[in-house]
């Protein structure tokens, strides 16, 4: 009898422990989004200076996803803009710090990735009326910071239990090229989160190509081909979808620029079909636990132009011999993510992925920052390489990539 009671007690204890463990690793996901269209007359980022918006082709969005496994939490945000700077991320964190998200949450666990549309507002400062005037509208930045923080709070209030699956394919052979005639990462990696009814809550799709179809062609607001991607994903899967721009530096561009707007949307639609097909052939994520690692770093500023732009107030940021930025390494189960603080050459995306364990791999270009191009050192040594004068002129310097890869390697080893 005593043995029987002991067995019952042991069983109940084991069951209790299992339930606690399940609670700790029960992934919850919440999403929210808001329109962030700039006012008409605002400066357009990309191409020539002194271009202003005259209308709207399709809306720009800030989209926030909050992840919580009962132990760790973080927010992943995408913004339809050319590249949000690190100082604005810090402002968003301060807003969130004053908010109640309803779960244990540290604002340092916010990741922001910009889609890099060239048909969005100037949030950097380089595309004002001329070289002596910033194109940034401070009121718009305040609006963007406030709206982003609010969407993180709303996403946290929308948390629901989620399972996940992922798919990986290649895409864009017929319309995406590295015009520097080098490596290219054609992977389309997608991670989908489903509720207990099997309905889509959220998908995260990682693909590398400049959204520049409409650059200098239209003066209207647009997310470019990403808009077509959003619309088709929503139509086919429901729920919400975040487009995570990949490594587009050195120089990943559409080959068929000049096509009509409707065909631009079709490009995005085709990309959505690739993501959906990859999911149909995909696999279930085996783990639901979250990890998050980040590190601040001071990148050397070898390019005097960056210091001059800061000194002149064109880029309203502290830039001296170094500039402070941040790199993040995080995971959802076996799905690994890493941020690059600018437009990195594809070789650095491939090297970053080589640091990752088996599972879906995501490299977030323009993640946490927008520090121009991050290209191979030889572009600084040989200006006859394709587009080298432009790419190096828009770069911090020759050593940026090495500092980035060293930091990512440190973070990957911490994770292991």
UniProtKB/TrEMBL annotation:
EC number: 3.5.1.23
Any one annotated GO CC term: extracellular region
GO molecular function: metal ion binding; N-acylsphingosine amidohydrolase activity
GO biological process per UniProt: ceramide catabolic process; long-chain fatty acid biosynthetic process; sphingosine biosynthetic process
Catalytic activity, reaction form: an N-acylsphing-4-enine + H2O = sphing-4-enine + a fatty acid
UniProt keyword Amino-acid biosynthesis, yes or no: no
Statement: the UniProt record of this protein carries the keyword Mitochondrion: no
Residue ranges the record marks as coiled coil: none
Cofactor names: Zn(2+)
Listed InterPro entries: Ceramidase_alk, NEUT/ALK_ceramidase_N
Pfam families reported in the protein's UniProt record: Ceramidase_alk
Keywords annotated in UniProt: Hydrolase, Lipid metabolism, Metal-binding, Sphingolipid metabolism, Zinc
Organism domain of life: Bacteria
UniProt domain Neutral/alkaline non-lysosomal ceramidase N-terminal: residue ranges: 48-239
Cofactor-binding details, from the entry: Binds 1 zinc ion per subunit.
Family per similarity comment: Belongs to the neutral ceramidase family.
PANTHER family: CERAMIDASE (PTHR12670), NEUTRAL CERAMIDASE (PTHR12670:SF1)
Protein name: Neutral ceramidase
